[in-house]
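Lab notebook page, bench 4
Experiment: in silico fold of construct C2
Operator: M.H.
Input chain length: 101 residues
Purpose: comparison with the prior construct
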Amino acid sequence: MGFMSLGDLLASSREERLSAENLYKDIVETLIEMAGDDEAEVRAAAAKAMGMIAEKKVVPALKEALKDADKDVRAAATEALGKIAARMQGSITPEAPNKIS
């Protein structure tokens, strides 16, 4: 195996990062679509997965899931929103208000 130049490493790293970002966006969009599936099990699974990724973009879909006719979907959405709220709260540091100006 030969050595790679720093430029090659950076280019490779950038391409991998962009590829991962695009995949992540696709996953988020797929989960949002799955939240509207006909099957309650699929909707509940989507809500659980949304809680794991804790992406702000999924919050509207989870709020809508709180109104679902299926209690398991509502429970999964409630838990997911709780996880997202906990992560957001945990990311706030005491110094944050001082840094906002």
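Observations: Residues 7-91 form a domain with the Leucine-rich Repeat Variant fold (CATH 1.25.10.10). Helices lie at 6-34, 40-53, 59-65, 71-90, 96-99.
Next step: discuss at group meeting.
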